[in-house]
Amino acid sequence: MNASWTLLRQPMYRRLWTAQTLATFGDAFFRVAQVALVLQLGGAAVGLSGVLLANVLPGLLFSLVGGVWADQFDRRCLLVATNAGRAAGMALLSGLMFTGHTALWQLYVLGVVFGSLSALGNPAYNALLPRVIPEPQLQSGNALFSVGDSLGYVAGPALAGALLSLVGAGGLVAVTTGALLWMVGTLLTLRVAPRAGTGAVSGSESLLAQVRQGWRWMARQPSMLLFLVMFAATNLATPVMGVALPLYVTQTLSERTAVYGLLLAAMNAGILVASLLLARVTLRRAALASALSLMTIGLSGYIGVGLTRSAIVAALLLALADGLSMVPNILFPTWVQRSAPPELQGRVFGLVSVTTYALVPLGYVAAAAAMGIWTPPAALIAAGVVLVLVPAAALVYRPFREAQV
């Protein structure tokens, strides 16, 4: 067991953790304000879908660019620039809302800008942590970040909903602006260790050539490639859960929509508890632990939920499944941070981000097709079978089973 919370006694990590947690709360506030504003402007379902898509699509392109820039430039300065850009966009939107000059198209533009800046900064953020804390503490550091995110995702929307009637959507956006400015201020005062590695990116090389350097390193790591295949299976199955679960509640269980909210709360509680445990328990067999976790997720959160007709049992199974999802989500970035050359980490994380972004739309296409063929329980069971079989196949490869974080 590790005294993981002692990480928060380290001033640099504590500042970064606090700023990241506040930024997560700010993002939750913005999501509530975004929905309220879209509905106020008459956008309804089409408007909401378009705004969400505008946030996701830039990641397909700019994650690769962000990965290269994270290796080419100072990662802290890159994060300052991207978060300052996001804060400026939020401040502009807040001003437009308070003066009554908002339009739906502005949310589309802001979604593209926000999605682009987030994609540019994410690889740098993941690659910065090894310069803030010692290598043996990376798993705990990643897990505690997940704890902060979980707190924001659980409490943020509820707090935003309570404040919406008091300060309005414009007030929520102003709070998000403040959270992002806090992040910028924290990054400006952050002192990080000197950058290790000598293979800096050459500005004379093309973007494609620089990306290929990261890919060549990944291609020589078959266990990591298998890990990405498991992520692919997860990213194809998760949208099925997102689409099928509310229908499972209302159609299969014949329960009120409020029960769906309780299931979501159970899932977030599972994430929080698992993140706290992973901050203290060191797991070295990253691939083995992750594969077994995904198989259990398939059996409990998908097949188990598909078979049960009890909302209480479903809540317990979903809490277990979402808690176990933190195992690969925490161990994989820790694995990259410890094993990838420091000068390539930005590009490796950029490639991982693109894989994630690219499969989100495909996952929803698969979910729509599944719901057109099967009932909600059958769709959940089919997705669960995929989540069991893909990791089981990966475990056949012995180096994968024995891979160490």
Proportion of residues in helical segments: over 70%
Q: What is the quaternary state of this protein? A: single chain
Cα-atom Rg, whole angstroms? 21 Å
Tell me the number of strands.
0
The rough form would be described as: globular
Mean pLDDT: 87
- How far the N terminus sits from the C terminus, by CA atoms, comes to 16 Å
Low-confidence spans: pLDDT under 50, at least 5 residues?
none
Q: What class do helices, strands and sheet pairing give?
A: mainly alpha
Biggest beta sheet attributes: none
Q: Write the H/E string, N to C.
A: HHHHHHHHHHHHHHH
Put simply, the count of helices is: 15
- Tell me the fraction of residues in β-strands, as a range: under 5%
Overview in brief:
This protein has 405 residues and is mostly helical. The chain has helices at 11-40, 44-56, 58-72, 75-98, 104-128, 138-189, 207-219, 222-252, 257-278, 286-307, 311-324, 326-339, 345-373, 376-394, 398-402. It is globular and about 50 Å long.
